[in-house]
Structures are given as C-alpha cells and as structure tokens.
Amino acid sequence: MDNAQHRDGADPRPSSPTTATSPDQAGYRQEMARELGWYASFSIAFGFVSIATGIFTAYGSVLNTSGPRGIWAWPIVVVGQLAVALIFGALAARIPISGYAYQWVSRIVGPVWGWIMGWISFAFLGVVVVAVDYTIASTILPELFRYQGTAQNAWCVTAVVILLQAVLVAASTRATHRVNNVAVTVQLIGMVSLTVLLFVVGAVTGKLDFGTLFESAPAESAGYYALGDMTHAGPFALAFLLGAFTIVGFESAANLAEETKEPARVIPRAMAQAVLSLGVLGFLFLIAITALAGDPAELAASDTPVATVITAVLGSVVGKMLLVLVVLSIFSCGLVITLSGTRLVWAMSRDERFPGWRALRRVNRRRGTPLNASIFMLVVAQAVLLGFSGSTDALFELFSAATLLPAIIYASTVVMYIVKRRSLPPSQGFTLGRWELPVIVVASVWLGYELLLFRDASFRNPWLYVLLLFAIGAVYFLYLLATRGRAGLSMPEMRDIDRELDRDLDEASGDGRPAGVGGDR
C-alpha cells in the first residue's frame, strides 16, 4: 500500500475520534469477507487460552514452588484477567480492526507508542507459540509413547509442530478456523467430562482428600504468604504464575476483527465469556486434580503430574486419552497463536511499519492469506526455539517469558485506557458503563502485582529475551525515524485500510469481484 498520501505533511498525532470510528466515514462495507460468527470468535479466544495447555504445562512448576495451596491464586488471577478482558473489549468495540493493541494505541495515543506496543505484541507471539508447542515435545509425547525425552528430540519435535501449524495457517484461513473450532469443541467437552469423572470416581473410591488443597508442601510453610524481598517472590506469590500463564491470549479474537461479523458487538463478549468459562472450568479441574494428588511432594517430582494423577485414578487408558486431548489442545493453541501473529505482522506491514513490509503486506492471490507473513512467523518461531534449545530449563524459561510479555502489553494498554478514557472514540457495540471505575481498579491492582512477581531472580533469562527483542526493535525504530521522521509514522485513516483490504481480497479472488460476494473467499 502506498501511504504517501498520508505521509506528506501528515500530522503524526492520532486520528480524531470521529474519523477513526464512524462507520460511514470509515467506509466499512458489509461485502467484506466477514465470515466469523460468535462461536468462531469465542473459539479463537478459548483456543489461545487453552486451560488444558496451561495447566498441563505449568501445574508441576507451581506445585514445586507453592505446593497444593497455590491453586487458590487461580480465582484471583481470573478476576484480574476478566477485568483486563473487559477493558480490551471496550477498546475493540471502538476500533474493531486487525492489530488490536497496536492499532488502539496508535490511534488513541500516537503512532510512536503504537509501534512500540505492536513490537512487544510481536515478541510475545513469537515466544508463546514455542512455549506451548515445546510442551508437546518435552513432556507429553515421551509420556504418551514411553520414550526418553532429551533436549535434542524435544527441539526436533517442536520444530515439526511449528511447521505444521504455519503450513495450515498459510494454506487456508477457513480450514484453520475449522480445525480450531473442532479442537475447541473437543477440548470443552473433554475437560468438562474429565472433571466430572474425576470427582465421581474420586468420591466413589474414597481418594478425594480436600484437605490437600490447603497443604503447602513441598514449599516451605514459614513465610508462605510473604511478598518476598527485592530479588525473590514468596511461595504464594509465585503461584499466580499458573493463572497468569494460562489466562492470556483472549485478545487474539480482536486481532481478527476484520474477519468477524459485527466485531464491535461479538468480540468483547467472546473475550469476556472465554475468560470466565475457562476460569471456572479450570479451577474445578485444579480442585479435582489437587484433591486426588495423594502425596504432593511425591507428585511434584513427576514430569507430568496431571497425567500421573489421572492415570492413578482413572487408569492408563483414560490417562492416555487425556494426553491425546492435551496434544490436540496444544496444537490448536499454537495454531491460533500463529494465526494471530501472522495477522499482526500483516497489519503492521500494510502500514509500512515492519521490517520487510513490502513482502509481508501481500495477500497471496491463490490462497487469500498473507502467505509471506505466515512464513515469516515460522522463521521467527524457529529462531526463538533455537535460542532456547541449549537451556537446561527451557520449558520454565519459555513459559516465564510468555507470561511477562503479555503482562507488559496488558498493563500498558490499561494505563492508556485510564489516561484517555474521557476522549475515546464512541463505542460501536460494547461499553463498561457504570462498571468502568471498578473494572479499572481491579485491572490496575492485579497487573501491578503481577509485574512485581518478575523481580524474582529465576526470571533473569526471560528478561534477557525481552531486552534482546526490545533492542532489535529499537534499531529498526530508529531507522524508521531517521528515514521518515515522525510525520512518516502517521497512521492511515481507517477508510484507507478498508479500501486496501478490499483491494487485496479482490486480487485474491482473481475474478474482479469483492471476496465474500457470491459465497467465494
């Protein structure tokens, strides 16, 4: 897209609220290829969050640092993240275009801060897909097929899984959504059935012991609720990482706003409903697993404590079925992350604000997908995987980095909302109303507390990853400023983005008609 008409003498400040949000002035046309309904949007948010993935990945780590009692941090995290999701929903209803926080901050605060937010979001998506896929290779497949997992075979398997996800995203958006919808449905039914089965069988066999929920071992009971010092967080504080790692990514639904029917109404509700349903179901599952844990200290030594409990209570067949369910859930989660990352790279590239934007902004004529952006995300994920491949504790470092980055994104976006909420564009379908102030307070307190957790010395390497990505981004950003100046970073109006999307989709259809007309995409 040639944005010269926006750049020559352009005002680098954000677009006015009226220009940025009025549907008629924005040039929204319903013949756009908006194919995603509520369930598809809900599935995107649900699939990214994926409690099966998060709990299976992080439960063992939290059991070691905080003991069984640590699961009581989960509902607190859910309340905090629900408040964040509601604020994100209020923004998505005002600026329903792909790029989520990148677009919101660019148009409300300014393109410089928006670019920084976009780069942080890109860094998060680049590491989190490796974090979730690495779980398949390092813990699940060795347990499922009874072989010895090593750093080498974990690296190879993860690389193959990332490749498969990228190929599917690049090949067909429609097929990607179908696979994700099926996977989310299976995960939802499977997790509900499994949770009920654990409670029933545990009660019948007398194995349920709710007293375990309040034990601290193997963590130290002395100073359990202490906040810690400047370089160490207390045992209970570290328990928040389980929920903080799991309940993230709900905003991915907003990253597909331009492909969603009535995005200003559908997306905010889909995000909030995904967080709430996952929070309740996840907590019930945690209670069942923990109450059936037996000896918590012994369970903490297991590489797959969740599978260990299920196998002990329900038998090896059901245990293996769970592992298959988790593999499906993780693959779906990685698929959604890849899809979301591709859309973000494409959104920044069409605004000429991403390295290699000339190639990455293109939509493949035959596939109707941003093929080059999909390949780029594949390369980035493989590079991140290579960077962590030599670590002896790669899984912890990956999921720590994948928890730190969204905390930064969420906190920055909430601060922007607080500062600018009196001058935000009008909502097109969702508002916080009288609940705005309580929601802001809850989100602010939670995110402030979460960020304090990362002062712990165990997060040194995740911070190094973040700083490295920031340094790379800073070099490119300085290049943009040097070659274009601040005026060259001004955002195109939404009407121009819509026209560009129409043009790309027309070219992708290959017959001169707008994609989505006549049932073609």
UniProtKB/TrEMBL annotation:
Where is the region Disordered?
Answer: 1-26, 502-521
Q: Its membrane topology, per UniProt?
A: Multi-pass membrane protein
Compartment(s) = Membrane
GO cellular component terms attached to this protein's record: membrane
What keywords are assigned to this protein? Membrane, Transmembrane, Transmembrane helix, Transport
Which PANTHER family does its entry note? Answer: AMINO-ACID PERMEASE BAT1, OS04G0435100 PROTEIN
Q: Please name the GO terms that the record assigns under molecular function.
A: transmembrane transporter activity
InterPro entries named among the record's database cross-references: AA/rel_permease1
Give the Basic and acidic residues compositional bias ranges: 1-11
Q: What is its main location?
A: membrane
Give the protein's recorded name: Amino acid permease
List membrane-spanning regions.
Answer: 36-59, 71-91, 112-132, 152-170, 182-204, 233-253, 274-293, 322-348, 369-388, 394-419, 431-451, 463-482
